[in-house]
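Q: Joint fold for the lines below.
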Amino acid sequence: MKRAFGMFVCEMVFIVLMVAPLVAADPIKVGIVDCYTGPPSTYTNDVRDAFQLAVDKINAKGGVLGRKIEFTTRDSKFKVDLGLSAAKELIMREKVNLLMGTINSAEALAISDLCKTEKIPLLVTFSKSDAITGEKGHRYVFSMNENTSMAGKAAAVALSKKPYTKYWIGGDDYEYGHAIADGVWQNLKKLKPDVELLGQTWWKVGESDFTPFITAMISAKPDAVIIATGGKNCVPFLKAAETTGFNKRVPFYMHTATELSTLQPLGMDAPEGVLGTSNYFFYYPDSPENKEFVKEFQQAFGRPPKVGALYGYITAAFIAKAYEKAGTIDTEKFIDALEGMTVDSPVGKLTIRPYDHQVMLPMFMGVTQKSPGYDFLIASDIITISGEDVMPTIEEIKKSRGQ
Amino acid sequence: MHGFISQISLPSLLQQILVGLSRTTILFIVASGLSLVLGVLRIPNLAHGSFYMIGAFLTYSVAAAVGGKAGFWVAMVAAPIGVALISLVMERGLFCHLYDREHLMLLLFTFSFTLVFGDLVKIIWGSDFRSVSIPPVFQGSLSIFGLPLPRYNLFLLVIGPLVALGLWILTQKTKIGKIARAAAVDREMVGAVGINVSLVFSAVFVIGCFLAGLGGALVAPTQNITQGMDHSIIMEAFLIVIVGGLGNIWGALLGALIFGLTDAVGILLWPQFAIVFPYAVVVTILMFRPRGLLKSTW
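A: Joint structure:
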C-alpha cells in the first residue's frame, strides 16, 4: 500500500515535470476579424480555411518555439464599427499576439490605426486599398495581398501596348472602384500620354442589371473600357457583357475578371477574351508546389482554392517563420524578423518589402477562354508580371506619406 | 467628357428606354406583390425581398437538378410555387395570429424574418455566387438601332404585361379579388357579412409572395444569385410602392415605370451620377404628392 502510494507520487512528479514545459509555453494567439456574412464571405472563407490548413500543419510538427498557433475569428459583417470593436475585444480580452483580416478596406484602415497605438501587428488579408501600406502605412501593419496601385500598374502596362486611345471608365461607386480606376488611369497616362478619357459611369455596389450601363457605354463609342468593378458585381457584369456581346464591340479590362470566384459561377455563360489580373489560379503556375497545395486544400475542404487561399496560406507561413527567426514572441522582434522575410508559397518565393511591409506578389494577367476539361472559363495566355514591377516605388510611398 | 450629351442620338435613347422597360418588368412584379399585401393585409412585409431571393436560389437549384433545356422552364414554374408554399406556412403559422397588432410590431416581425431567411439561405446554399444560364432560345442579343438588345429582355417585355393583365383579372374579375378589395377598405364589414376574412388574407399573402418568387425566378438568369439580393430589391420595391400610392397595384406599375425608365435614361444622360437620378425623381414626386401618385388604400 505504502509502496503503491510512493509509486503514485513518483508518477505524479514525473507527469508534472513532463507537462510543465508544455503548460509554460502559452500558444501564439492570432485573432482574425473579417466579414463572414453575405457575398464577401465567398472570398474570406478561403483565407480562413487555408490559414487553418497551414496552421494545422505547423502545429502537427510541434508548432513554433514549442508553442502551438491558435486562432479565433470574429465576424465583422463588412461593418467598420463592428470590426473595430471586435479587434479591440481580441486585443484586450483575448490578449491576441497579432491580428489579421479584413476584406473591407475602410475596416482594415480603422483596425490598422488601432494596432498602431496598441502596438499589435496587423496582417491584412484581402483589403485592396493601397493606403494600407502606402499613405497610412506604419510599423505594425503588413499587407498579404496585392492592392489597387499594383493591379493598376499591371493593367496599365498591358493596355499601353494596345492601340487604344479613347477610353471610358465604368465602376462601382465606392473606395475600391475609384481606387482601381485611378490606379489604372494614372499609370496609363504616364505610359501613354495621348490617351483620352471620354467619360465615366459609376454604378452602385450590388447593382444587378448591367445591360443599360453597357448599352450606354457602347453608344459613347470608346476604343476600350476600364471596368472598375469588384466582388459580387463581377458575375452579373460578365453575364451582361456576354448577352450584349459587349466585349466583341468594345474590348475591356476588369481586374478580377479571370478569378475563379467570378468565372466558376458563370459556367459557360462568361464572355471570352476579357482581360483580367489576379494573384492566384489553382491551375497556374503549373508547379509541384501549387499542385501540392491544391491537392491538400481540395482534400480538406472539397473545393479548389481561390485567390484568398493563397493569402491565408502565406500569412500563416510568414507568422511561423518570423517567430522562428525572432526566437521569442516579443512583438518588436517579430516585426523586425518579418521585414524582408521570404517564404515559399504555391506561387514561388514571396518577400515582404521592408520599407512599406507589402508582400511583393506577382500579378498574373490573362484573358478569359473556354478550355477543354473545365466546365467554366479559365485564364489563358497568362503573363506573369513580377512583384517588383508592379509595386509602387519607395519614392512614391514616401511622397504619399508626405515625407 | 465635354460635349457628350450632344452625341446622344435618338436611336440610343430609344434603345435605352427598351432596356429600361424590361428592367421595369421585374420591379413591377416584385412591387405589385408587396403592394398587394400592403393594401389588403396592411403588413409592410420587409421579408418580401427575402422571398425574391429565395425564388432566385430555388430557380438555381431546380434548374441545376432538372438540367438541360427543360431545367429553366421547370424552375420558372417550380420556384415561385415553392416560395408560395413557404409563405403559406408562414402566414398560417404566424401572421394570421398577428393581424390585430400595430404596424410597428408587424414591421419588426417581418424584419426578423429577413434575418432568419438570410441565415437560412446562407446555411442551405452557402456563400458562393450562383448563376443560372439563359435558355438557348433567349441567348444573345438582337440588334436594334445598331445597339444590342438582349433577347431575354424581350422575353421580359412580354411577361410584364401578362402579369399586369393577370393581376387586373384577379382583382377586378374574380370573387376573391373583389372580397380582397372590400376587405382592404373595411375588414370588419366583410367579416360581418359572413366571409372568412382570414382565408382571403391568406390567399392574398400567398399571391403576393408568389409574385416576389416569380420576380426572383425571372431575374435569376440575368444576375448573380447571392446573399444580399433581398436588401437591394426591398428598398427599390418600397420606393416604388410609396411613389405609386400604398397598396395600389396600378400605382406599383406607374412607380416601376418611373423608377426603371429614369434609371435607364439617367445612365445614358448623366453616367457619372446615374445612381442619384431615379432617387432624385422619386424625391421630387414625393415633395409634390407625399401620399403617392395614385390613390392609396391606407
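Q: Anything notable?
A: The beta strands of chain B are 141-144, 147-150. Chain B has a mean pLDDT of 89.
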